[in-house]
Amino acid sequence: MNFVDGVLQVESFLAVTLGIVVLFLGRRLTQASSFLKEFSIPEPVSGGILVSVLFAIIHYVTHIDVQFDLATRDLLLVYFFTTIGINASLQDLFKGGKPLLILLSVTIGYMLIQNLTGIGIATMLDQPEAVGLLSGTVSLIGGHGTAIAWSPRIAEIFDLDTAMEIGIASATFGLILASLMGGPIAKYLINKHNLKPEKVEEMDVGTAQDEPQPSINAYDFLDAMLAIHVCIILGAILNEGVSSLGLELPLFVTCLFAGILISNLIPASYPRLTGTRWPARKPAVALIADMALGAFLAMSLMSMQLWALVDLAGPIFIILGAQFIVAICIAIFVVFPLMVKTTMQR
What we know:
Number of helices: 14
Strand order of the largest sheet: 1-2-3
Radius of gyration: 22 Å
Shape: globular
Order of helices and strands: EEHHHEHHHHHHHHHHH
Largest sheet: 3 strands, mixed
Strand content: under 5%
Number of strands: 3
Number of domains: 1
């Protein structure tokens, strides 16, 4: 660590270590808080926000800032999105049929409405369009991971230094608002239309009690790592290719596409050096995805400069309030009627 001109600079290794500590802190907080569990606040989010609040207090009291080297965090982002690509199955997408196609079409249309709402209100409030964009689809549908992933690019294009903080704040409050919205809307629609199930069954959520838990050994883990690295290498080559055409994309995007291409174009039975099948949807890939995302989010949130959001708090809450109302209307007056009609036709 170095202390220069009122800034405590934390090197990459210590930043990763603190990120892991923050992740476990968030886990303890979530286990102890019914509020965090009720609103499904991710563990790295609760821990990261708490630590960033502590750093904000240090900033105001001592005028000392803490600055992290986040190079390893950016690599974790690439790992996570690569695992998403590896696990993506176009075959499953086609199995969804007409209901999935309708839901996908509505979602795409809603994303446009969501972004127009955010940008429109931001403009009315005399705020940069990027504030509205970050309070739209990027954060509210993409979540914390997507908001953090795209915020550097948005910050660069729109010259907005607080892009990451805005995205994280929007994603966090979006989670809370979505949790507040889902239950009441479902209850309203059930009561209004007198909906009743054909038969009463016990709710089956998550892994069945009698289902054996998968075991992972060192070779399973290394097999998954090898597959991820192959996709990252291809993703880096694709990134260079699109860059030469004048299209600048973050590395995680091309690595995501590389994972999708390899998983869906190369047969699973294709012979590999490891002697195993391509590890799509295998427990080892899921484990690496969880590790990468958890540490990535924890490091991102603990490094937030909350004091930079003070002047934007009002506009952000107004935009999110409007997004909340729009989401309720879309769910009740668009999604529900369309999906009911589609279900009745089957």
